[in-house]
Amino acid sequence: MKTGMYLKILITFSVLAFLNNISCRPEDPDDECTQNRNVISKSGELLVDGSAFWQISVANQNGAILVADKNCHAQMQLEFWFKNKELAKTNVKPPILIIFFGGGGFFDPGSVSVYSKQISDGSYLWTAYCDQAAKNATENPTDFGISVGWDPNQLLSLEDVKLDGLINYKTYKKQ
C-alpha cells in the first residue's frame, strides 16, 4: 500500500517538474523581438531643493531619434531609494510618482509592479517594473521611457531620492 502511494507521489512530482520545465523554456531565438535589442541606463536624483523631475527615454539617449520597435515589448525598470541612510532603512516607499510611457501615451499603472527588498546594509531598495509594447502607436519606430516626479499626494513628506533606470528594447529595422 505504501509503495503505491509513494509511486503516485513520484509520478505526480515528475509530471509537475516536466510541466514546469516546459513553461520555463528560453524564448525562441528565431522570434524577431529577441534580436537587435539594446539597453540604455541612467542614474540621477530627485532633490527637495533641486531637481524635481527625472526622465530616461530611448529617443533622448539616441539623439532625439525614435529607434524602438513598437511591436516588441520593452522591459523598463526603475530602482529607487532614499538618499538619507536612516530613512533608507525603513520600508517606507519614497514619495515619487512614476510614469512608464511608449508610443505617444503612457502605460496603465495596473501593468506596473512595484516592490521593495532589503539589501545587505539593511536599506530598502524599491523597484518599479513594466514590460509592455506600444502596438497601438500610430508610427514605427517609437519611443519608450520612464518619467519620475514628486507624488502630489505626499508633498508634505518629501525627502531626497536616488534613481537608477534601465530600458531594454528592440531596435526597429525597416522590413
Please give the structural blueprint.
Blueprint (H helix, E strand, L loop, with lengths): L1 H22 L13 E10 L6 E5 H4 L12 E9 L2 H4 L7 E7 L2 E2 L5 E7 L5 E9 L11 E7 L10 E10 L5
Antiparallel strand pairs: 1-9, 2-8, 3-7, 3-9, 4-5, 4-8, 6-7
Q: What features would you describe in this structure?
A:
The chain is an alpha+beta fold and 175 residues long. The protein has one domain: Jelly Rolls (Sandwich). Helices cover 17% and strands 38% of the residues. The strands form two sheets. The chain has a five-stranded antiparallel sheet with strand order 1-9-3-7-6. Strands 2-8-4-5 form a four-stranded antiparallel sheet. A hairpin with a 2-residue loop joins strand 4 and strand 5 (105-106).
Q: What is the radius of gyration computed over CA atoms, rounded to a whole number of angstroms?
A: 21 Å
**Total separate domains:** 1
CATH class: Mainly Beta
Mean pLDDT: 87
Distance between the termini: 64 Å
Helix/strand structural class? alpha+beta
β-strand amount: 35-45%
Biggest β-sheet: strands ordered side by side in the sheet: 1-9-3-7-6
Count of β-strands = 9
What would CATH call the architecture? Sandwich
Low-confidence stretches are 15-27
Query: What would you call the shape?
Result: elongated
Task: Kindly identify the CATH topology.
Answer: Jelly Rolls
In which range does the helix fraction lie? 10-25%
Largest sheet: 5 strands, antiparallel
Quickly count the helices: 3
Note the run of SSEs as H and E. HEEHEHEEEEEE
